[in-house]
Amino acid sequence: MNYENITLNVESGIATLVFNRPKALNALNDALLTELSKALDLIGADPDIRVLILTGSGDKAFIAGADISELATLNTLQGRIFTKKGQDTISKLQSLDIPVIAAVNGFALGGGSEMALACDFIYASETAKFGLPEITLGIIPGFGGTQRLTKLIGKNMAKEMIFTGKIISAAEAKDMGMVNKVCAPEALMDDVLKTARSIATKGRVSLRAAKYTINAAQDVEIKTGCNIELDAFSICLASCDSKEGTQAFLEKRKAEFKGSYTS
Ligand code: CO8
Fold it and tell me: Most buried by CB count within 10 Å: which residue of 38, 86, 227, 243?
């Protein structure tokens, strides 16, 4: 498939999707969201893709937010439709069965931070900047930021960020628990790829189960969460991946997971 606003490259089971509007600091316009949504459908349906990495083109931005020149032309109804499209696309990203890593290489503002927050975890360049500056435009985050940021860093920290619209460094974002690792700019993609390769060798069935159960922990109380874990664990245990993993351990060799529930 040909894209104009993103690029997608798949190598050895690792897909790298690049937001590619460098002249607008990779801002999210309607066309980009359409392409992203289609790409996520293809990625989700491809059994050979084990991990997805998201990053931005150029050395300045991951995503500088929703495209303000487009946003400024929208009436209330059009704004709601656009915001819903952004929310649905970002929810689709969060719901992918495979692990998704955000490699934040510069500004991740507004919708850019919201996109990164929907990934499973974030590695950031030392030069990256995070923030939800929507309040300075007279609006609030609309792509899930009020919800995902609050769940991740807590209500009061999220309120301070959203009420002030302040922009924070990668180091500050790490201190708040938004970012897992801060990397030298030139090392960011290598570090992300190293982690992605490690994940890609693991069993697809257990990765899917781990992601599903950890995500459930954010939405349900502990008893329900532990029941979800029990069921997911049982499914893993019955899978070919589990047979291969335990057999490989006993035979003192490296497991070769096929990603299958049954033989
Ligand atoms: N939208 C459109 N164009 C942008 C955006 C953006 N979000 N950000 C940057 N650009 C463009 C600039 O207009 C500029 O274009 P040109 O060269 O043609 O003038 C080019 O990118 C480079 O930008 P700057 O010259 O401004 O670069 P600086 O290094 O001086 O500044 C900043 C970089 C600090 C990132 C600055 O560009 C900035 O503040 N950008 C806007 C950040 C922002 O407010 N983002 C939040 C947007 S709102 C949002 O995301 C809400 C999402 C959910 C709601 C959806 C509602 C419908």
Answer: 86
